[in-house]
Design goal:
The protein has helices at about 30-45, 50-60, 60-70, 80-100, 105-115, 130-135, 135-160, 165-195, 200-220, 225-260. By secondary structure, the chain is mostly helical. It has one domain (about 75-260). The chain is globular and about 65 Å long. The chain starts with about 30 loop residues before the first helix and ends with a helix. It comes from Winogradskyella damuponensis. Keywords: Membrane, Transmembrane, Transmembrane helix.
Length: about 260
């Protein structure tokens, strides 16, 4: 018998391939087998997802540094974890746009106020739809990660902390972002069920997200509290500067496109 994944020769008693580590599947796909796999991957108290989620709160350095240094079996791969987070964010957007449309009224009210305060003649934003930020939330998450990684890498690089390269900072920010997206998606759905406004929900989630970011960076880069806090402030300044520059470029391009489309 050969492994279906890498074609390595296997012994009849093997449960996992000793070449690629894949689990050997002996049974045909049936509802019971599929249910067992779902339980192993997502529901079981011992599964990788729950272990990764909990340890990213308890000991994020173990998950993140472990992955960077080569530990790839104990926790979910960083890209898979980020993909799960984006899936939950997609479910959140679907529920918001389908069942909680009133929670998005703040965007329409904001644009109505903006348009009424500006001249309606040759106003390129007169027909702007604020809901686009909700519909393309997943894409915004994906685009933001490289810039947040650039902010942390550049910030620590300028402070003399050059232990990790840009790609490794990308791993740090992917795990952090995935954790925040998962928590945000679940809490947003729960809060909206109880009728809270989306702006209130976002405000409740935003501040703890920054605190958690500081916690993750401190656990990874160590050091006394105030030294870590000073580094964090510098990193956040670097992050916002780099993100603002890129955001300004996209904003200018958006204005140009909007004016061209309006004309």
């Amino acid at each position: 018998m050969n492994c279906k994944n890498c074609n390595n020769t296997l012994r009849a008693s093997q449960k996992f391939c000793d070449e690629c580590g894949a689990k050997i599947i002996h049974n045909r796909l049936k509802p019971k087998v599929l249910a067992q796999q779902i339980n192993e991957q997502f529901i079981s108290i011992d599964n990788k997802f729950l272990r990764t989620f909990i340890d990213l709160f308890k000991q994020p350095e173990t998950v993140i540094i472990g992955y960077i240094e080569g530990t790839r079996k104990k926790y979910i791969d960083v890209l898979q974890y980020f993909a799960i987070a984006l899936t939950l964010a997609g479910i959140q957007v679907f529920l918001m746009t389908t069942f909680f449309k009133e929670a998005l009224d703040f965007g329409s009210a904001f644009m109505e106020g903006f348009n009424s305060a500006t001249s309606q003649t040759k106003n390129p934003f007169a027909d702007f739809n604020f809901d686009i930020f909700t519909k393309y939330q997943g894409l915004i998450y994906i685009i933001s990660v490289p810039f947040s990684a650039l902010g942390t890498w550049l910030g620590y690089y300028l402070l003399g902390e050059r232990r990790y390269n840009f790609t490794e900072h990308l791993v740090i920010n992917l795990y952090y972002s995935a954790q925040v997206i998962i928590v945000s998606a679940v809490l947003t759905i729960l809060f909206l069920v109880f009728g809270l406004d989306y702006l209130i929900v976002y405000s409740i989630i935003a501040i703890p997200s920054f605190v958690y970011f500081f916690y993750v960076l401190k656990r990874i880069f160590k050091g006394p509290f105030w030294e870590a806090f000073t580094r964090f402030i510098f990193v956040m300044i670097t992050y916002f500067i780099s993100f603002s520059i890129v955001g300004l470029i996209f904003f200018i391009l958006g204005i140009i496109i909007a004016i061209m489309a309006h004309n």
